[in-house]
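Journal club prep — side note

Before the paper discussion, L.F. wants everyone to see what a predicted structure for a comparable chain looks like in token form. Sequence:
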Amino acid sequence: MTWLVTGGAGYIGSHVVRAFGEAGIAVVVVDDLSSGHRDYVPDGVPFVEASILDTAALTEAIRAHGVTGVVHLAGFKYAGVSVQRPLHTYEQNVTGTAHLLEAMVATGVTDLVFSSSAATYGTPRVDLVTEATETHPESPYGESKLIGEWLIADAGRAHGIRHTSLRYFNVVGSLPGLADTSPHNLFPLVVQALTQGRTPRINGDDYATPDGTNVRDYVHVVDLAAAHVAAAKALAAGRELERVYNLGSGDGLSVKQIMDAFAQVTGLDFTPEIGPRRPGDPDRIVADGTLAARDIGWAMRHTVQDMVASAWAARPSA
């Protein structure tokens, strides 16, 4: 059994690759390195530098390495930037997924775990998001992920592809040497500010939450990666999975709680600056992970202190 991991040189993808390795499952990585890092791919893991828009390269990689299943993480993942770059976002996330499916059909590969997103929900109108919550994406990124789910489901019906989509919320933490380098995510922004001697910033402290800062679901990337392995194993064993799973905590953390954890873990005494709200930021987005716990062993095995400590230890200057 060998699994192809698209985007396996990226932050989340590299952790998924490590999790497969720890489970004794062979992987091959395809990544165009537009945001990934070649040195995030472990020695001994086959690496193909190619775009998911290149059907021929994908087909060759699948055939050359005897691939039996795919974890599809490659894509353009910046929701805010996608508003300015909708055509690029759709090309990478929708057209790219279509090319991958074409390569899978051509080679007879039928198992697929898809990296989806909480952005498919937009601003939920409920306190606790379940898989039955209506989807209202509010960015080209969220729209492209939802269309990707539809496209995969259509290919499943037409070509027998067995699949599940994992909707991520806020993925944080790191294994050593695999830092999150996104210029848009909260954890790397806080780490960068602290390492540069600047004060981290909170965007708004007047939300309808216990401490006034907005509440989000934060999940450790190692827990997330383990869920991918469990989903892949289930599909490979012929088990039927739900079409979609939320990988959420069920209770969430506020931005202030995250800041407090950074101060505690790093020993740096700071009071965050308070800036204005960002337009459209909801008070609270928290997801129920019950279905994923039932079917693929999803669990929050890391505390907020674990999340912060691992992100701080993996910072580039450490």
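L.F.'s comment for the group: The chain has two domains: 2-171+218-246, 173-216+249-313. Keep this in mind when we get to the figures.
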